[in-house]
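Readers of this paper often ask what the protein records in our data store actually look like. Such a record has a labelled line for the sequence and another for the backbone structure tokens. Nothing more is needed to write down the fold, since each code stands for a local backbone conformation. The remainder of this section carries one protein's record, kept here as part of the documentation.
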Amino acid sequence: MINYFELKKWYNDNAEKINNSIVKNIYNIEDGVVFELYKPGLENRFLYIIPGKIIFLYNVKEREEINNFTLKLRKDFNETKINIEIDNSDKIIIIKNNEKKLYVELFPNGLLIVTDYNDIILYANQYKNFGVRKIFRNEKYTKPPGSVNIINNINEFFEKVNNTNKKDVVRFLAVDLSLGGKYSEYIVKKANIEKNKSPKELNKEEIEKIYNIYNEIVNLKILIDESGNIIGDINKYFINLYLNSRENKRIRKLNEEKEKIKRIIEEQKRYLEEINKEINKLEKIGEFLNIYSWIFKDYDENSIIKNFRELNINIDIKRDNKYLIVNIDDKYLENK
């Protein structure tokens, strides 16, 4: 949802606003938690934390809800002074008071993990075994591999280009340089380079162009939204991402309900069609029997077959105890 450089910009802009604030309350929302903060002059006093996605300060309080994880957070953080830090190479914000640390993981499948100051896990919003790391009580907290590697000089950048195995420039920027699709597309467009071009085919001037734009991004001079526009207020941008995501989720849910209702209606229509077909068939059988009831008067099989044959109607009769079972071709029913 957000990349490391956007998170770093958010941290740079908002850390001092949050640091030394007092946690007045904590409650959970659908996909995360909210810290209600107090600090003189702090306008947006609700810190929204959505693990695996986003973090931002907001001035709107949602309906308070609690769960077991929130109750534990309240016990450890309510009425304490907090400070925040950012990991130097991954999308992780650390919220600290004098005794505990809350790791806010904002990469995909990220969690909320509370540890002591030795990084021993005390509890988390979910417990998982990721293979490369375990998030369980009493385990040592470790972050996943694959951290952002920032390149700070042109020579190292040239080496990175020469050693990549990516087949085009966009993939090289998105994956090898951890920029993601949005910034990769932006760079090649601004540098006027064909995005499907192989990194091996880039000349010296093109590599320098790419590096200069890349350098502006990693130094937080250029940050863009999904339309390629320069982001002004990063916190407002994060708020809008969250609100749009919630609205899209609401619309998706409504559309899913709509499709579910449509399926039910279609099933009911098909059921009614079958019922109507059966009713129509029974009506025709009733009409047929009414017209030819005189044939069945004595329930004599031979007489019944003889009389129908004289009418050019082929039937099949068999006796089942006291019942006569008569099979009549549908075409004769259609004619009556």
Remarks:
- The mean pLDDT is 88.
- Residues 243 and 313 are 72 Å apart (CA to CA).
- The chain has nine helices and 13 strands.
- Residues 234-291 form the longest helix (58 residues).
